[in-house]
Amino acid sequence: MWHEKKRIEGWHAAAEAGDSDAMLHLARAVKHSDPVQAEHWLRSAADLGNLEAVHKLGLVLWHRGEYEGGEDLVHRAALGGYQDAIATMGQLCEKRGDLKGADAWFCKIAADDDSD
C-alpha cells in the first residue's frame, strides 16, 4: 500500500508538470475510487493528444450514454492510428448494423498487423 501511495504521488507530480502518460496512470489508479478525478485526468491527457486517453475518454462518455461525443473521440483516436480505438470503431459500427463500416475498420487492423 505504501509503495502504491508513493507511485501515485510520483504520477501526480509528473501529471501536474504536463506528462500525459502520468495523467493516464492516475486516471487508471483512481477510476473506481474517484471517477470524476479519473475523467479529469483522462481529459487532460486527451487534450495533450494522448491517443490512449482520447480512446478511454470516448469509452467513458459512450458508456455514460453520450454516444455521439464518445464515438467522436474514439473515431479521433482511431484516425490517429490507436489500434484499440480502431477495433472499437469496428465494434461500434457492428452494434448499429453498419457491417460495411465495421469491415472497413477491422480490415484496417488486419492491414496494420500485416505491415509489422
Concise description?
It contains seven helices and no strands. It is mainly alpha-helical and 116 residues long. 32% of the residues are buried.
Which descriptors apply to this entry?
116 residues, mainly alpha, 7 helices, 81% helix
3D architecture notes:
By secondary structure, the protein is mostly helical. The chain is built from seven helices and no strands. It has helices at residues 2-16, 20-30, 35-47, 51-63, 67-79, 83-95, 99-114. Helix 3 crosses helix 4 (51-63) and helix 6 packs antiparallel against helix 7 (99-114). The longest helix is centred in the C-terminal third of the chain and has 16 residues, at 99-114. The protein is elongated and about 50 Å long. The termini are far apart. The relative contact order is 0.09.
